[in-house]
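In the current project phase, our protein records have gained a structure token line. A sample record follows, to show the layout:
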Amino acid sequence: MSATVAPQTTDRSDFRTVITGGTKLGLITAAAVVLYLLASKHLPGTGGVRSGVETLVVLAAGVTAAFLPGLWCAARNAEGIAGAAAMGLWGTVVFSVIDIVLLRPVRAYPWTWDAVGGGTTWWYLPMWWILGTFLAWMGGTRIALSASRGEATGLRVAVLPLAGAVVVAALAKVAGLAVVLPVAAGAGFAVTLSALAVIALARSA
């Protein structure tokens, strides 16, 4: 009688899963950046249309970067969370290659960050890698903790971080802060996601 090995259904952190998922994540990120650029260049700035579309693109990209790695790795324990973080890191590296090889040569957008760094791209790329890894780590943690409590582990875990993004963006708008709406919403999403993950970890300790 031959024995069969059941396929692994959780905590998939093998090399193939991480590289394949990270590559897809990098391509999705590149598509989101192109959409953002198209919106910023071709949509009217009056009436908040352009700002609204840009904010939607940023939040969609945030949800993708934060939660798809954890879902693809089926994160349930530390192994799956680590796999999600590694996938997030590889996704940022893939996007960085697309950015440098394709977007920079055609001057797709003004390089404000380069100017801040003295004309070089190498000061902000590591920050981008850190952000992508951190979002995937926090998203994977939230997915794993939700699963441990018997809750849904799909994209419904993104509802509260998105709500936090909306609240922060609204407060920034009402307060008249000198920050563009997509930046405020993106920051609100990242901060809320991190806070929720830390709170859930503290409760499970």
